[in-house]
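Our preliminary data section would be incomplete without showing what the modeling component actually yields. Below, a chain of 293 amino acids is followed by its predicted structure, encoded as tokens that our downstream tools consume directly.
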Amino acid sequence: MPRSNIKLPNYGGQALIEGVLMRGKKTVAVAFRLPDGTIKTISEPLKGIYTQGFFKIPFLRGPLLLWDSLVLGMNYLTLSANEQTKSDEKIEGSALVFTVILSLVISIALFFVAPAALSRWLGGVLDWRPIWINLFEGLIRLILVLGYLVAISYMPDIKRVFQYHGAEHATINAFEAGEELTKEKVINYSTQHPRCGTSFLLTVVIMSILVFSLMGKLTFLWTILSRIILIPVIAMFAYEYIRLMSRFLDSPIVRILFWPNLALQKLTAYQPSIDMVEVAISAFNKMHEEESK
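Predicted structure:
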């Protein structure tokens, strides 16, 4: 089966509640399984910043794609949940933006501000040098991220979302290999993918450890502000790193360097059932069909 002429780096995917979202260059498609067992597929053209060419600008595209993933994911998670419960509740417009911003604020406070505050307090008590305070902060951040992923994986609903995440990866891996997209073949493909958001998350954490460890001694206020201000900058470099490394995974050295990014996906991309793969294929095929028009 020949590969499509669509450039795969433009693809993005997300797991939903009983479903999968696939995003292309100009279309987003989502498929989810309804309570009666049937699969519902929805697609719509991408608008706004997607039509302005901003996603082609190096470094700027990283934060934009992060925002894109949050907004699209929140929107379609709500839609998928509504289909499961037959609810008419929606999050859209200003409410959607507020929800995403609130989620970002909570995440920044938990994973960046809190470790910085704790490490500075403990470092002051133990009279540590600034570099050890900053490294300890990074260690706390890494433990928090890993602990959070492990903790939520015990929730049955989240576990199923992670299985759909695996189905999304397997589908894209099969397509990139030129495989026929049948559920019997796709399910045999890896649930790990180099351009996964989990890889991006780990890269942001590791880069933040390196960057912040070199900043030396700062006042408490500037310590907190630097963590907040530099997150988008680190995200820019993290995305470009992921994008670059994914192009050279045939190199043994690159695969060794990238191994932690793929290994971490074992916490967020589980082996799916064959019916989950069927949903992921439906979403991909719908997006692919619209992209090819």
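The first strand starts at residue 12 and ends at 16. Strands lie at 12-16, 19-23, 27-33, 39-45. Preliminary results of this kind motivate Aim 1 of the renewal.
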